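dumping this here before i forget
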Amino acid sequence: MPTKREKPIFNNLYELLEEDVSPKYYLSEQYIKTLEKHKANHQSKGNGFGYKVVNEGENPISNTILATGGSGKERNLIRQEKPEYYGLMYGSKKSPINSQGIRVMTPIEWARLQGFKDYAFIENGQDNFSFPSKVSETQQYKQLGNSVSIPVIEELAKYIYSQLEELNRYGV
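structure:
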């Protein structure tokens, strides 16, 4: 069984969130209404599908991220108050930014969830993780969602190694 880390990478979801994100990550009022309708429709059928704001409560955790590049983001929405964005028309959004402070997680936040950013690529105290500049955000989401969490792989490798050492001790 993998051992518990001496110190967690992040104590909870709040620690990996970026503080000042672009309005492009905030959902429009119309999109929020669409998500609410979709969730209500599935709930009426007894399904658990639908959007989820994951950073509410004392010790928030995220859901699994997916390689879809789009629909997987709705299961890990963030509430982050940004009153200066409320009602703002931004980019190609068809309606103003929602006044509930609901946004999608950024690729950097997904990279932190997977153990890439601020963990696996640190050399001499410097984080060296980045995507090549030509990789679109959609592709970043897909690659991170299609990836395996680095800390999970580390723990599995440690466990497998300890079991092999144990077998070796018995001459197997």
